[in-house]
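Late entry, written up from scratch paper. The run itself happened at the end of the previous shift, but nothing got recorded in the book at the time, so transcribing now.
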Amino acid sequence: MSAVQHARPPLGLPPGSIRGIMAIQIVVVFWILLLMAPADPEKVIPIPLNLYFMLALVMIFFVSHGKSIAKRGDIALASPLWLPAGTLRFLILAGTAAVVAFLLVKHPEHLNRLTPNPEQITVAWKYYFSALMIGFVLGLIVKIMPFRYSWLYQSFQAWSAIIAMAFLFLDMIFQVFINETLPRPIEALPWGTALTGVVAFYYGSRS
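Output as recorded:
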């Protein structure tokens, strides 16, 4: 089996591009769920708990700049998605600030969704936390393995990027267009656990 001399970024994009897209996907779901008016105004439907754990991956995207992602002024590496340095981070911070400011002024009651219910805390958190830690650590371990430069592994990493982004897109469809319309939204524990683990694995393998 032939090997390349260095690890190529997945899908031929600059380092950090896929992680940046995933970070945007995670926060966009947060924004939409907070902005949506509940079907029953009398009910407070909390944000899916696994999204809070995946926010840790958004923070990892921020701190990876200057390490596995080009830092400002680095002429050797392109910034994520070939955008000006700091663009994705600015979009995440500015978008979050805009959503929170809008809700504070217009719909402060929507911010009650940020408080998890007791059932989420007592049952689901350990599965999501375990998926986050196991996925991320497995990614870190794979990252240092000698086969990380092989074409087979790099093909696998490219497919894992596509799968993780597809999972996040499907989760947005489920949370926004399906779960929100149910009389009693469900905490899809197996799906949320798998999603958190897959995304965490990719972050670990690239951070």
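The first helix runs from residue 17 to 35.
(Scratch paper discarded after transcription.)
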